[in-house]
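3.2 Worked example (two chains)
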Amino acid sequence: MGLFRLLFWVAVIFAAIWIWRRFIGQPKRPRPSEDKHTAAPMVRCAHCGVHVPQSQALSQDQRWYCSQAHLEQGPHTGDR
């Protein structure tokens, strides 16, 4: 009977430690930053009209382009 009590209390102590680590001892997860949820500024390609993030666009003469090829070709002229 004494061995059973010892095993019972060992199991209770291990369960308490497991619960403590799992629910109480865990560090809180940081909240997602508000900056991650804001949309990146978009600009329109002067050649083809595609919208791209400003951070990826190329600029020349106050116009934005989606690629180096469109920057070299310049703004689109004429009817589509």
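3.2.1 Second chain
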Amino acid sequence: MAQLPTIAFASSPAPQSGSVIVLAGDGGALSAEGRAADGSGALRRASGVAEFSGKFGAVLELIAPVENGPDRLIAIGTGKADALNDHAWLKLGGVAGSQLRKGAKISIVASVEGVDVSAEDAAQLAAGILLRAYSFDKYKTRKDEGEKADGAKSGEAASVTIHVSDAAAAERAFAAVRAVAEGVHLARDLVNEPANHLGPLELSGHAEALREFGVEVEVLTEEEMHELGMGALLGVSRGSTQPGRLAVMQWKGGGDEKPVAFVGKGVVFDTGGNSMKPAAGMEDMKGDMGGAAAVLGLMRALAGRKAKANVVGVIGCVENMVSGDAQRPGDIVSSMSGQTIEVLNTDAEGRLVLADALWYTNDRFQPQLMIDLATLTGAILVALGQLHAGLFSNDDELAQRLTAAGLATDERVWRMPMGPDYDKLIDSKNADMKNIGGRYGGSITAAQFLKRFVKDTPWAHLDIAGTAMGSPSNEINQSWGSGFGVRLLDRFVADNYETAKNTA
């Protein structure tokens, strides 16, 4: 992977050399610290000429503005002060990250006129830099060569120093948000990996690697899943030469509290099986494990910041292929719940994997709630595009908490309808249910299918087909795999289920 910048915090004024970034408030105003960094006033004079007004995310760059001053002087607009929330600081960090050159040393003056910039704000700024710096170049044999204009070699990581009023407090705050950023990076890596390098065994292996951070991990083999009666999940895995796995992760940071549980669809590649997909665009199906990637990234984030919560993560790891042993349209399989499923379309396989994973999670752990994530349906893209994930739930309070976390992190969700009339569409004449409900409302009938495997446990389903892969680039993500869901669910846990917060 590309080298990420090193980030440090300092309380001293920014140096008058190298590359310096200052933050310009509404109208282009600089704080006292920003004016000191501007020194001769070259940036303020250029602001007038360029009509730079400090609009959020706008950039004004000066190269060698004076003879004895910074090599580069950059102003980034922060917009209106009352709009500077956590996510705004994260995005500002992303904009700052877009100005980094490999190997360069850069100073950022984290000060805004009329704003009390907190340690937490500075930490979010730093996290935004890390998120923006991510790129997936693991398999490129030719890297950029030579030297950049500032004399730094292109293979070196950039070095960033953020100047704040309380550097020690910012450093402490950054430790937690850095762990979340690292969880996002893990999820992006997994979604970006090609399927010939990330099969079911490799995906479950990434769960096992979390033991390093204190996560308890078990991996169930196909034999063990067969003994448990997981015919729905194993039916999907039948067509592949690679065996399926169920990875079970536990983070125990919340004392005696019942856990909250997250379940991810981990289809490492989806041909559609015998109901085969068209060739055009099938290469994107390496990302059909985006739900599992989000759960892995979340567990990495929670463990990394030592979350005071009990959390279970379960991922079903399979490959949906075509072979002489692959399941056929019309096959009937028996799930762990005992309910039978008529498989009318082998390309509606993710819900079969989740059916057994959800039932297992609920039956074993009796969690407070369950949330599953899956790149489940193309229908959700038609309904919501790529800016919202579809939210389906049997519990209004849970849905509201997820919505609030989505607004706070800008990983937005939109609640979709459910109900008995939709549920009837998946009734089968030959089994307890069928795995598709017809052309209309495809994302809804998929959710209705999953609901049959959660009993009365508060549950939410996030259809992330439009947001986990190929989503639009933004200030903090330039990658095909976005890592969607990690920040959303980390915030959801932090705001609602950490014991230290709930007893304060």
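3.3 Remarks
The chain is about 35% helix and 20% strand.
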